[in-house]
């Protein structure tokens, strides 16, 4: 019988053909690393399996790292994320951290520092209490996919409905285009028409005011009383 691998499980999403395999090899002493070079595949793997940490490059094919992390957080995934990037300005770092990354490392970096940061992240990580998001006077729990009123009413949402509403709730002042919402809350292969369909579903389950249509641009969070 093979011995159980007790190393923390890390998903590395890095498209550099030389750097990706090298980092995976260098981390292999302390971590069980799975490498993918594609942003969309990284999103699917992150959601399909349990990981102790994610290492995500910012510039990825098919789905960039910032959108990947935003999509994971919108779907309720709380696994620690360390973002790798060649962009080291303060605004770039702020954008990555605001997207939901827990740490940020600028290329070129030392593999020992990356390993040390991952050890710290995996030591301190514990699944958080419910991270509720305000939707007007209501609250959305992205993990249980329940939208609750202050009076005890509740609406059960599907996974896609909850992910879509969470995207709006995390940035209530922002107007999202259909293409942005498609990348953040939907599966690969879905079309922009799916965004309109699920906006309709959310309005039908709650109220027309929950999501505002901004003509010629897209959608924005409304509110519920």
Report on this structure.
- With 225 residues, the chain is α/β, with parallel strands linked by helices.
- The chain has 2 domains: 9-124, Rossmann fold, CATH 3.40.50.2300; 133-221, Arc Repressor Mutant, subunit A, CATH 1.10.10.
- It is 39% helix and 20% strand.
- The chain is built from 8 helices and 11 strands.
- It has helices spanning 19-27, 39-48, 65-74, 90-99, 111-124, 159-170, 178-185, 192-205; strands at 9-13, 32-36, 53-57, 81-85, 103-106, 133-135, 138-141, 146-148, 154-156, 211-214, 218-221.
- The strands form 3 sheets. It has a 5-stranded parallel beta sheet with strand order 2-1-3-4-5, sandwiched between helices. Strands 6-7-8-9 form a 4-stranded antiparallel beta sheet, covered by helices on one side. It has a two-stranded antiparallel sheet with strand order 10-11.
- A hairpin with a 4-residue loop joins β7 and β8.
- α3 (65-74) crosses α6 and α3 (65-74) crosses α7 (178-185).
- It is elongated.
- The protein starts with 8 loop residues before the first strand and ends with a strand.
